[in-house]
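Researcher: We're teaching a course module on how sequence relates to structure. For the next exercise, students receive a sequence and then see the predicted structure as tokens, so they can try to spot secondary structure elements on their own. Here is the exercise chain.
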Amino acid sequence: MKPKTKRAQENEERIKNAINVMQIIANDNTTPRNIRKAVKDAIDKLTGTEGTPGVKAATAIHILDDISADPNMPSYSRLRIWNAVSILEAIKD
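Model: And here is the predicted structure for the students to work with:
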């Protein structure tokens, strides 16, 4: 097996950090159900085996960006989503 490159390790760490931030939202019962579902979908995309880390991150960013404009979203959830997006934007292939 080929050892992981520094970039691959950094990408893996960023994905873990973003998932940790998103799990806070997914487990928060004060956040509307549709937002929690979208966040769980983004987590599933990041933990899936399909695609490179950059593709996974881009897919998750797209999902999170779509829900970030929801008027029913509490402001603290929106800030966490923006935090996760900023972490994911640093991932490059």
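Model: If you want an answer key for the exercise: The chain has a mean pLDDT of 93. The chain has four helices and no strands.
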